């Protein structure tokens, strides 16, 4: 997930035609929203990671202003900057009207957010329903919606097919055991992998997969901290073996680093959104075009638990309760989530964002290029970051503190033994999940 070498995304004419011709099967629904006279809106959102995302988003913003006369200012910040700015706005009662943030940030200050239940129910009924993870993140009491899901940046395996074949693998491994064999073979061939072990908002999510795939959990279904477990220790021992195959430097990697390493030819496999492929295929550089042709995507392998354990970067849309224009803000989100705007935005982002509403799985973006398809069901299949407990203040705080990622980094690198790392994570998590 990088800002590396962005270029304007242009879809092929066949894809555009397919998108224009397709009409989703939706149910007719209505909602009465009456924007306030003289309304002006300010939106704070995370920065683009593929150029087509912000290009089409701003096209839609312009359409909204032309239709309603409501002026909309859009500010873009990095993920790590949106979170503290959103917290300040919530606590001071002043700032953007609408904030697009990540994971369960909405659960840090639910009482400061506008109830959007009517809007969520309207969109859900019209577009085939929200995927379960959306409700887990934004409907914590099972009744009131405190925000709307925007989607998720899928965290999939990104790899060089030719280098895997050179290492003796015709297909991407489907089990943890074979995955580790592949990583060792790639290192022996001089084409190692690399996975972020720094405080990377999106790219450190592979550490959730690592723990979950071995049966470990930060908390159980009763939100009791259980990270210091036999299952976690097995996962951390596995992490040590993985780390031994990595390119040097991954302990300090943030979200842009693995993109750059992959596109520079330093690594052959990593986990990432579709942005690596997006940059490569839309570049004028012949070397990057060659890399794009070699790139393939796959789901994470399945560990000892025997089921997929996917973790993806979730995006939310929050309307702050202090806004002077709640009806205008809700109308803005409604407009942006309707098919005529949302589908072109999915297309523009080139598969970087997976949809939160089931009807949008039929978007042409997922079939125009077969390499996009693995990202389609990211929201449908994901586990919330606070699994297996209830999302709320504790899960949001623990996630923002990178407890699982730090634990894996400490154990994998040898800075602490697996037991020491798990014990430290247990104590850190218990500060959030107070009994």
Can you characterise this structure?
The chain is an alpha/beta fold and 435 residues long. The protein folds into 2 domains: 212 residues, D-Maltodextrin-Binding Protein, domain 2; 187 residues, D-Maltodextrin-Binding Protein, domain 2 (3-Layer(aba) Sandwich). It contains 18 helices and 8 strands. β1, α2 and β2 form a beta-alpha-beta unit. α8 packs across α9, α9 packs across α17 and α17 packs antiparallel against α18. The relative contact order is 0.20.
What can be said about this structure in brief?
The chain has 435 residues and is α/β, with parallel strands linked by helices.
Cross-sheet strand order for the largest sheet: 2-1-3-8-4
| Poorly predicted ranges | 1-22
Major beta-sheet overview? 5 strands, mixed
Beta fraction: 5-15%
The CATH architecture name of the largest domain reads 3-Layer(aba) Sandwich
Number of strands: 8
- Per the CATH scheme, the topology name of the largest domain is D-Maltodextrin-Binding Protein, domain 2
Q: CATH homologous superfamily of the largest domain - what is it?
A: Periplasmic binding protein-like II
CATH class of the largest domain: Alpha Beta
Overall form: globular
Question: Considering DSSP H and I runs of 4 or more, what fraction of the residues is helical?
Answer: 40-55%
Q: What's the number of domains?
A: 2
